[in-house]
Each structure stands twice: as C-alpha cells, then as structure tokens.
Amino acid sequence: MESKLKLIVVTGLSGSGKSTAIHVLEDLGFYCVDNLPVALIQRFLELWDRAAEGIDRVALGIDLRERTMAEELPRVLDELQGSGYSIQVVFLDAADEILVRRFSETRRPHPLAPTGAPAEASASSARSSPRCGSGPTASSIRAR
Q1: How many domains, the chain?
Q2: Residue 32 dihedral angles phi and psi, to the nearest 5°
Q3: In this structure, is residue 1 part of a structural domain?
Q4: Is 28 within the bounds of a domain?
Q5: What are phi and psi of 39, to 5 degrees?
Q6: Is residue 124 part of a domain?
Q7: Angle, vertex CA 111, rays to CA 109 and CA 114, nearest 5
Q8: Which residues, 6 or more positions from 95, have their beta carbon under 8 angstroms from its beta carbon?
C-alpha cells in the first residue's frame, strides 16, 4: 500500500515544546493529535485510510513517558514505513535551564520527578531516564 499521507511524529523531553510544535503544525494545516498512545497509531492510520476525506498531512504528539513507547515506537514506525507511509520524526530537546524555567512557570511538577523534588532535579530525572533522554531507544528515535 502506498499512502499519500505525510506523517510527522513529534516527541522528545517533557517541557521541550512538543505541544507548541503540534500547535504550529496545526496552524500550517496538519491534522494534529497530541498525546496519542503508541498502541493506537496503527489503528488511527487504518481509520484514516478508510475515511481519508482530504486529509493528507497528520502530526502526532507522542509522549516519551508512555510505558510502551520505548519498546514499541521504533517498531511501529518501521512497520508503517514498510507499508508505504512517509514519516518524519521530530525529537525535541532543551537545555536543563529551559526545562527548569518551563516547569517553574507552569508550577507543575515534572512528570518524571520524584514527589516534591525541585525543578532542577526534574530536568535531571528527565534527561537520565532511558525512555526520555538517553539510552538506545531515545538515540534510535533521534536518528530517524
């Protein structure tokens, strides 16, 4: 199957600007879904293939904190490319100072930080997590 769909997958560290990037892509005419679980990507695209009402550009925001993301996202993307989808991955990162500032401004704890940890520890936690900032899975996603 050769798909005419252009798919952009936006992922990266929490606080790096994924939602902002999704909003920009939406302004550029992409159909956007933020925080779509990896397990639903293939099903979403199957439904798109059936409905395909003039939508030819889709952007998906994928959260690295999702439990299955590290193991499943590279495999799912490989399968989709093998099926003819045109896929571009955008991996967003930011300096620790920026992550700290963003979480301080929102007054939200970083999702990977230990309960009650300061924002500085939150940025460090995110960067050292194999799902989010380092390790073979993050590297393989960045390499796409």
Answers
A1: 1
A2: -120, 140
A3: no
A4: yes
A5: -60, -20
A6: yes
A7: 75
A8: none
Q: Domain range spanning residue 118?
A: 6-142
pLDDT on residue 110: 54
Lateral strand order in the sheet of 57-61: 31-34, 57-61, 6-12, 86-92
Three-state SS string across the chain, please? CCCCCEEEEEEECCCCCHHHHHHHHHHCCCEEEECCCHHHHHHHHHHHHHHCCCCCEEEEECCCCCCCHHHHHHHHHHHHHHCCCEEEEEEECCCHHHHHHHHHHHCCCCCCCCCCCCHHHHHHHHHHCCCCCCHHHHHHHHCC
Q: Can you read off the two tokens belonging to residue 27?
A: 């302004």
- Which residues touch 29 (CB under 8 Å, ≥6 apart)? 57
Tokens standing for 139? 């590297």
Lookup: tokens for 33:
């879904």
The residue that leads in pLDDT, 25 or 5, is: 25
pLDDT tens per residue across span 30-87: 999 998 999 999 999 988 888 767 788 999 999 877 667 777 899 999 999 998 899 9
The CATH number covering residue 28 comes to 3.40.50
At 12, phi and psi to the nearest 5?
A: 145, -170
| Amino acid sitting at position 44 | F
